Amino acid sequence: MEQNKEMTASESLQLITETLNNSRKDILRSNAKYYMIWGVLLTCFSLAIYLLWKSTGHAYWNLLWFAMPLVGFPLAKWIGSKEDAVRSENVISRITRGIWLTFCIFSCSVALFSILYSFINTSPIGAIAVGTSLSGQIILLFGMAETITGVALKNWIIKNAGVVTGIGGLALYYGIGLYEEQMLLFTFAGIVLFITGILVKRQNR
Amino acid sequence: MFPKLDPLLHSELRLAVMSILAGVDEADFTYLKKQTGATSGNLSVQIDKLTAADYITVEKGFKGKMPRTTCKITPTGQEAFSHYVESLKEYLSAGK
Questions:
Q1: How far apart are CA A41 and CA A179, in angstroms?
Q2: How far is residue A145's CA from residue A62's CA, in Å, rounded to a whole number?
Q3: Which of these, A190, A205, A200, lies nearest to A159 by C-alpha position?
Q4: In this structure, are residues A27 and A92 in contact, taking their beta carbons and an 8 Å threshold?
Q5: Do A143 and A167 meet the contact criterion of CB atoms below 8 Å apart?
């Protein structure tokens, strides 16, 4: 880029537009990396819980979910710190972070209430009803968070992936079993998230 | 009568730097260099000019053991940039 190149008004406006587009692409590339990390983690954790639950018959393995953020957040932070060129936050990245933080708070709250209820409620049918509805609620929240992120980033891949995860996940939820099979919903969400990351990265090379 | 375009912003590299900084809270020198494709020397000179006009502020610090220079747009710079974009739009709409 030349420092003193004489520009016309339209060239100047084009330069500003290109810079803003590059900035948006940069945010998308950065998001793609995190989608891949969380996609792999979600797939691994859901499969591990599914297999442990299936082999032992204990639903307590669900507590392993709380270990996922303990692994994911430090890993994401470490990968973020490896970037040599640092762009700080802007409005879009703040909104995106806010959306996923909100999802995290809401899904953890739903899970905690469900655990508390299963201790209080003596009826096994009631406990099953709460436990199984939890997966449907979380998959919907997940799909919503992903779709809203796609809207904020004006990216059709993320928007559609959110719809596939939320609505597709809900459709699977009604057809899948009541117990450990429910974990496969999150395997599905993890795979969709990972593929979304790859596609968004390719799209914004 | 068209408003006069700010000569400080009507330069390719300085405009690119301002466009980047207008959209983020702050950005480091390496990021600006990567995004603009400019050489370090060239970029430093233009950053100095923008700093002298109080359009941006520059902070020098460390990231771990590595030196890090961070640039941030000032309210004066933000206003000048908005004014520049408005002027460009006026020029272009008049030309249609």
A1: 21
A2: 22
A3: A200
A4: yes
A5: yes
Of A3, A86, A89, the CB nearest to B12: A3
Annotate B12-44 with b (16+ C-beta within 10 A) or e (fewer): bbbbbbbbbbbbbebbbbbbbbebbebeeeebe
CA distance A143 to chain B (A): 28
Q: Could you report the per-residue pLDDT of B8-66, keeping only the tens digit for each? A: 888 889 999 999 999 888 888 988 998 888 999 999 999 999 999 999 999 998 877 78
pLDDT band at A51; cut points 50, 70, 90 = very high
Of B30, B89, B95, the CB nearest to A84: B30
Whole-number Cα distances in Å, A30 to A79, A88, A170, A187, A197: 10, 12, 28, 23, 10
Torsion angle (degrees, nearest 10) of CA A139, A99, A93, A89: -130
Q: Stretch A176-191: mean pLDDT, rounded?
A: 89
Could A19 and B16 be called an inter-chain contact, meaning their C-beta atoms sit closer than 8 Å? yes
CA distance B52 to B43: 14
Cβ separation of A86 and B46 shorter than 8 Å? no
First to last CA, chain A: 20
> Hey, are the CB atoms on B28 and A5 less than 8 Å from each other?
no
Structural domains of chain B sorted by starting position, each given as residue range(s) with its CATH number in brackets: 12-95 (1.10.10.10)
The ipTM, to two decimals, is 0.82
Type of residue found at A72: G
Q: Which amino acid makes up residue A119?
A: F
Beta-carbon count within 10 A of A180 CB: 20
The residue count of chain A comes to 205
